[in-house]
Specification:
Helix content is about 35%, strand content about 30%. By secondary structure, the chain is of the alpha+beta class. Helix 4 packs antiparallel against helix 5, helix 8 runs parallel beside helix 10 and helix 14 runs antiparallel to helix 15.
Length: about 1450
């Protein structure tokens, strides 16, 4: 009955929970709980165990009741407790969300209060500005007021929404609390059940404890009974039982010991399997990464090849275009020539393809022959080998391969093909040897008997004990036991763990490799085990099989400490890092040798990324140097400028809706950087295209989104301001160049403050290497202003007339705390026309000083001050200076004036009226001209008493104008007018007059009414030319309104003629910059803009336009850089909102024609005594019509060229004994000065003139490896000629030249150590090696011939001659010398011919060698030990 009541209550509880949207599970769902619920609840399995163990029903009922308590009731109790806990958590969650909503509401109310205060403040400020009639401030404040009102409205809406949500949450929480309150009775019931459960649990524990005590008491009683029984048993059985128990314990201990060992071994095997699994997984991950990197590298290579192909295509098109133009100029058929050239290239390509097919076919034949040879070798090994005779020669496989190749190479194959074939043969030979060894090992393994392969058991058993065997089992044990007890051989001492062989080097490293080169290394494998071992090559990693060839001849058994060699050849064909290993097998285990190949990389760094110039006075120039170092082996190109890297600029400037444009422009920048083959003349074109794209993007942004346009314009203005502020900091001459491996470059930063204030500039060093990140350098400096300055640095006297006095004030201001002495300087040329009072004065601390400037121009001003006065324009501009005591830099100010004449000229000096009666009036005209630039008033005075009048009697005369007046005895009006004097259009006076008129022009407004008469009908058909009839009543009137206003913008530069800027003739590739200024003559500010110039044209606007105020000027800088020989013309429009000013840009490109007396190639200075010099003169002739600049650069002194370490490494790795392999820059002087010098280093060759360039060779120690490279480069970066300079120095008057090279052609810059104070003796022998190779072909032998040269630098008193010794012994071995003794004249060389003819019976592989002394006598006697080495070769190049 009670169970049914509980179920009813449970149903009610679940029903009441439904409105709260929180469901509880019933008793039937206990088994279907989720895993999360099982984790939250305590484990209920112990309840079942508890009920199973307690057969006495300890938990069946409560202590005070006799009714049993079931398992379902206990589970129901825990289920109810869980549901109640979930209800509590849900309630706490609702309370937290309610508290958070209240906090948000409080924050919103505080924000609304703040906005209300701001609105009140703005309204008061608006009223105040309206009262002050400040319209600009009112507009700005109203915009701010509008924004604040908008924010306030939005905050109020959010507050209302938040308040509604808060009320809803409070209502939901109240309802939930009401629902939870309904379960208070059920909660009390659960608490009571829990209390009863804990009491039952405690009682059960007490009962179990009592039961354990009883069990222990019973066990002790049984033990005592057994002891009593054992006392009665006899002593002998006790001994047997004790022995059995001891044996059993020992057996158990022994079994436990072996069991532990077996378990440990199983665990170790499991760990090894796990480690192998982990390693295999790591290898797979590395393989995936390698595949990904290979894909990326392939994509990058494809991009580079595509860009390179595009560049090559453009280059070919330009070359074809130039060829066509040159051939058209010569009058030849360009189409036919190009067709013939393409046809020749096609024929050449077909020939190369045919040669490649021949090579491939030859290699196939070799492979087939090798396969047949391998089959024969295997059959020969399987067949019984006959015994060889003692004198019989067995050809090695290598000799057989060489003969086979010699037979196949009837035509001389190239060195590359021969190396490839030999590499394949060596690989096949090594593989065949390895196969042969595998066959031998398999045969040896087959000879092993079956017992030899049995393994040793994990632990020994009863068979290890010595007990007697039956007779029939003795033989079997005698055969099997020795085999079972056989163990592997071990050396004396401990067994070595790890690999049995060690390699030297441990890691085979090919560092900084180049694609296409071949690298070889030798590896020594040493047996470090304690047994006699063998070594076998297994395999190489899969990623290295295409690039590495292993040449390993497997040795026989190796004792401890013995070693063998392995040769590894690396031929890379891809430019990426490679890693792998070479696997070997030994008698004990396999071992591996790691192989690592790394490409060349750049490692760039600077010594300082922050430069602080400190504080310096305006006008000073300070230079700092930073060092850019490349610690890597890869050369790269760098550039130093102020522009940020492309991704950063795009992230800052362009809004989110323009990201597509950014992604499109970024690869373009990368292509511009990677296309190094594009000529430098295209850089300006690319810059213009970038600028045009940016302008178009900004215009699109401004039209689509005004807010984004404002943001972009503000950011653009900030960037422009930052660049304009940093004009005081500039970069030195080195802005870009190449930095080679392990080199460093000095970069100069110059700070010359022009205005006071702090200046900062961010410089970026960018690199053409895509893996090298740009390096940012922060430059900081502060300019301190002069303590004394002129308040008005430009004193404008306006327009002045000759012989009239004008005065101005010159005011100086001081910011120092002490008095300073001032001295006004005045140029000697201006002392007759200008005066300063006083000339000397004292400027007090923190005050000003005023001096008076008197200007009285005389008529001799053009002759006296022709340096400052332009007589054609009348403009006077005099720079003045004020010397301040204790201040190095003077204070500069400028006096400007336009000086004009004040003369009025008449066309005639006398007026003759002739005869006239007293009642008659006679008129006569006189022309009066004003020669001044200013209008002048005139009047006629001193007229005769007769009744004569002059009209006009007075008036105002305009500048440079002509006025006609009539003179008559009575009043009369003008009747005759003539045209003014003609001024040449486009001249200097014309431009000045135009500028003066534009400055003084006043606005006018004229209206004209034009009557238009309408005819009544058509003219008669008989006479169409007759005038039709019309009536005055039928008339129309047309009113014309003609306003004339002053232009707001005028050109004020003297280099502009008729609004045209002419650059004249400029050399192709050279850049010329010209400037002109525009002035705002209106009364309001003008925002200047310009039209877009041709992005592929030669003209470029260098500076940006800005807003200029009334009376201000702005200078425009234009560059002209022609790329072709032709005339250019473009129009630049300078625009403002009121007018457009058009300026025509003209220029002509001229190709420089420079020739050199030396066309290029080798320039050998010969032998020179040490510390002496010799020179050579190059003559450069300029045949063009413009001056052309040039630069002479030595390879050793040019930091932008790649040189040094890479060449030395290539020479050291390759065959440096070949005399043809020489570095560009050879040996240098010990004193640090260059061996070769050039004067002048740079200069300019005037038109139709020539220039001499002197090259001097001045060594300071003996050497034959002096070399350098001289490049004559024009200003357009084109190379005129490239000379390879070579020279040698000797410490003696006589020298020997020729023979084989015995040392590396690169010498140390350190002088040789001095072993003694005395110089070298005359008996010192100098070794010389001469190799003679006789050729054998078609059964005949051609003698070998070499030549040595003995030279004399200058004449000697003791004579100059040479002598050979041991001539008889030389002839016995086939050597012959001609001549054997001779004298050498000064400044000449004497050739010595060495011939070797093999004697009869000479063996083919025998090398003939002997040493012969050669004595050379001059000022000192020197003996050369000439070693002659002769051999016979089948092929001699």
């Amino acid at each position: 009955m009670e169970d049914s009541d509980n179920l009813c209550e449970w149903d009610v509880f679940s029903d009441t929970c439904e409105p709260t949207s929180y469901q509880f599970s019933s008793d039937e769902d206990i088994d279907g709980e989720t895993e999360e619920e099982k984790e939250e609840l305590p484990d209920l399995e112990w309840l079942e165990e508890l009920y199973e163990e307690n057969s006495d029903d300890d938990l069946a009922g409560e202590p005070d009741e006799e009714k049993p308590r079931t398992f379902a009731a206990t589970a129901r109790m825990f289920k109810l407790r869980r549901n109640l806990y979930q209800l509590d958590n849900f309630q706490r969650q609702k309370e937290r969300s309610l508290l958070k909503a209240r906090e948000d509401l409080n924050l919103l109310r505080q924000s609304i209060e703040t906005l209300l205060e701001q609105r009140d403040v703005l309204e008061q400020e608006i009223k105040h500005q309206e009262a002050a009639e400040n319209s600009v401030a009112v507009i700005r404040l109203r915009a701010q007021h509008k924004n604040v009102c908008y924010e306030l409205q939005r905050e109020e809406e959010i507050e209302a929404h938040t308040n509604n949500e808060l009320r809803q949450q409070e209502l939901a929480l109240s309802e939930f609390e009401l629902e939870v309150g309904k379960f208070s009775v059920l909660r009390q019931e659960v608490q009571e059940e829990e209390r009863v459960y804990h009491v039952l649990k405690a009682q059960n524990a007490v009962k179990r404890l009592e039961q354990e005590k009883n069990n222990s008491h019973t066990l002790r009683r049984k033990i005592q009974q057994l002891k009593k029984k054992n006392v009665d048993v006899p002593e002998k059985p006790d001994t047997l039982v004790r022995k059995k128990s001891e044996d059993g314990g020992a057996n158990r201990e022994k079994g436990a010991k072996y069991l532990k060992e077996t378990i440990r071994r199983m665990q170790q095997q499991e760990a090894e399997r796990e480690q192998k699994k982990r390693e295999s997984m790591q290898k797979r991950i590395e393989a995936v990464k390698l595949l990904k990197s290979n894909i990326e590298a392939t994509q990058e290579n494809l991009r580079v090849r595509q860009s390179r192909a595009k560049a090559n295509t453009l280059k070919k098109e330009r070359q074809e275009k130039r060829l066509k133009e040159s051939m058209h100029a010569q009058g030849l058929n360009s189409t036919r020539h190009i067709y013939q050239q393409k046809r020749d290239e096609e024929v050449k390509r077909q020939q190369e393809e045919f040669k490649e097919r021949q090579k491939a076919r030859r290699v196939e034949i070799v492979d087939k022959l090798l396969e047949e040879q391998l089959v024969k070798n295997r059959k020969a090994r399987q067949a019984p080998q006959p015994k060889t005779k003692p004198g019989q020669k067995i050809l090695s496989p290598g000799r057989i391969k060489e003969r086979l190749l010699r037979y196949l190479d009837s035509v001389h194959p190239s060195g590359t093909e021969r190396d490839t074939t030999l590499r394949k043969l060596s690989a096949s030979g090594s593989s065949s040897d390895s196969e042969y060894q595998e066959d031998i090992i398999e045969k040896e393994m087959q000879h092993l008997s079956l017992p030899d392969s049995l393994e040793e058991p994990e632990f020994c058993g009863l068979w290890d004990q010595s007990y007697k065997l039956p007779l029939n089992e003795k033989k079997t044990a005698a055969v099997v036991c020795p085999k079972l007890r056989k163990t592997p051989k071990k050396g004396v001492g401990k067994q070595i763990k790890g690999p049995s062989f060690t390699s030297k080097p441990e890691v085979i490293l090919f560092k900084d490799f180049e694609v296409g080169e071949t690298y070889k290394k030798k590896v020594i494998l040493t047996n470090i085990s304690n047994i006699t071992n063998h070594c076998k090559f297994l395999e190489i990693s899969a990623q290295l099989q295409d690039f590495i060839i292993i040449n390993f001849q497997p040795p026989g058994p190796l004792s401890t400490g013995m070693s063998c060699e392995m040769h590894i050849t690396f031929h890379p064909s891809i430019n990426e890092d490679l890693e792998g290993e070479v696997a070997f097998a030994s008698a004990e285990s396999n071992f591996f040798v790691a192989v690592k190949c790394t490409i060349k990389r750049c490692d760039l760094e600077v010594d300082s990324q922050f430069i602080d110039f400190g504080s310096h006075v305006v006008g000073q120039t300070i230079l700092r140097t930073i060092t850019l170092t490349n610690k890597g082996a890869l050369a790269t190109r760098f550039s130093l400028d102020t522009t940020k890297p492309v991704p950063e600029i795009h992230q800052v400037q362009i809004p989110s809706h323009c990201s597509a444009d950014t992604q499109q422009d970024t690869p373009c920048a990368d292509q511009n950087q990677s296309a190094a083959s594009i000529p430098t003349s295209m850089d300006h074109v690319l810059d213009r295209s970038t600028v045009s794209r940016q302008c178009q993007r900004e215009s699109q942004i401004s039209t689509s989104d005004p807010r984004a346009a404002s943001v972009a314009s503000s950011i653009h203005s900030q960037i422009q301001d930052g660049l304009s502020d940093s004009c005081d900091i500039r970069i030195g001459n080195v802005r870009e160049g190449d930095i080679g491996p392990f080199e460093s470059v000095k970069l100069e930063i110059i700070f010359s403050p022009t205005v006071p204030g702090e200046v900062k500039l961010d410089l970026y060093i960018k690199f053409s290497d895509p893996t090298s990140y740009p390096i940012a350098i922060l430059v900081k400096g502060e300019g301190v202003g002069l303590p004394v300055w002129v308040v008005e640095p430009n004193i404008d006297m306006k327009i002045c007339m000759f012989d009239r006095l004008y005065q101005e004030e010159v005011t100086l201001q001081s910011s120092t705390s002490t008095a300073l002495k001032l001295t006004f300087d005045l140029w000697p040329e201006m002392r007759k026309h200008m005066e300063i009072i006083p000339r000397t004065g004292f400027l007090q601390a923190q005050s000003s000083f005023t001096a008076h400037l008197k200007f009285l121009p005389r008529n001799t001003l053009p002759e006296d001050a022709d340096k400052y006065f332009d007589s054609a324009t009348g403009v006077l501009e005099v720079p003045m200076a004020v010397q301040v005591a204790g201040q190095v830099q003077p204070v500069i100010y400028t006096v400007q004036a336009i000086v004009t004449s004040s003369d009025l000229n008449f066309d005639q000096s006398e007026v003759d009226f002739g005869y006239c009666s007293i009642y008659q009036s006679v008129k006569s005209s006189v022309r009066m001209t004003n020669m001044s630039l200013l209008p002048q008033e005139f009047g006629f005075v001193g007229l005769p008493e007769a009744k004569r009048e002059a009209e006009p009697n007075k008036g105002k005369k305009l500048s440079k104008n002509t006025k006609l007046s009539d003179f008559s005895p009575k009043c009369a009006t003008p009747t005759e007018t003539t045209a003014p004097d003609n001024i040449e259009a486009g001249g200097q006076r014309f431009e000045e007059a135009r500028a003066s008129l534009l400055h003084s022009f006043t606005s006018r407004y004229n209206e004209y009414t034009i009557p238009c008469f309408v005819s009544d009908g058509d003219p008669p058909e008989e006479d169409r030319q007759a005038q039709p009839a019309w009536s005055p009543l039928n008339t129309l009137y047309l009113k014309l309104q003609c306003p004339a206003v002053q232009p707001p913008l005028v050109v004020v530069s003297s280099n502009i003629r008729n609004y045209a800027l002419d650059f004249q003739q400029v050399a192709v590739g050279e850049r010329v910059i010209k400037r002109f200024s525009v002035q705002n003559i209106s009364e309001e500010s003008l925002e200047l803009r310009s039209s877009l110039l041709d992005i592929y044209g030669p003209f470029l606007l260098l500076n940006a336009l800005r807003a200029i105020g009334p009376g201000e000027k702005h200078t425009l800088a234009l560059a002209f850089c022609p790329t072709l020989e032709k005339k250019y013309c473009e129009t630049l429009e300078v625009r403002c909102h009121k007018m457009t000013l058009a300026v025509t840009l003209r220029g002509e490109g001229v190709v420089p024609a420079i020739t050199s007396s030396h066309s290029g190639g080798l320039l050998d200075f010969g032998y020179v005594l040490e510390k002496e010099s010799t020179s050579h003169v190059l003559k450069l002739q300029n045949s063009s019509t413009v001056a052309v600049g040039f630069k002479a650069m030595l390879y050793s002194l040019t930091p932008s060229e790649t040189r040094g370490p890479d060449e030395r490494v290539a020479i050291l790795l390759g065959g440096y004994t070949d005399s043809k392999i020489q570095p560009v820059v050879g040996t240098q002087n010990y004193n640090g000065l260059s061996v070769f010098s050039v004067l002048p280093v740079e200069g300019s060759i005037a038109a139709k003139q020539s220039q001499d360039v002197i090259v001097t060779f001045h060594p300071d120690h003996p050497s034959v490896n002096y070399s350098d490279q001289l490049t004559i480069e024009l200003v357009n970066k084109s190379k005129l000629c490239v000379l390879d300079l070579k020279g040698a120095a000797s410490s003696h008057n006589m020298y020997l030249q020729g023979g084989d090279q015995l040392a590396v052609p690169i010498e140390s810059l350190l002088p040789p150590p001095i072993t003694s104070q005395q110089g070298p003796s005359e008996d010192t022998d100098i070794p010389v090696l001469v190799t003679l190779r006789a050729s054998y072909s078609m059964g005949t032998i051609r003698p070998a011939v070499r030549e040595l040269q003995v030279g004399c630098i200058r004449p000697s008193k003791k004579g100059t001659e040479f002598t050979w010794d041991n001539l008889a012994s030389m002839q016995l071995k086939g050597f012959n010398v001609d001549p054997n003794k001779a004298s050498v004249e000064a400044g000449t060389k004497r050739a010595i011919k060495l011939t070797w003819t093999p004697l009869s019976g000479h063996k083919p592989n025998e090398v003939v060698q002997m040493c012969v002394p050669l004595t050379i006598k001059g000022e000192e006697t020197r003996v050369y030990q000439v070693t002659l080495m002769a051999l016979v070769c089948t092929h001699v190049n």
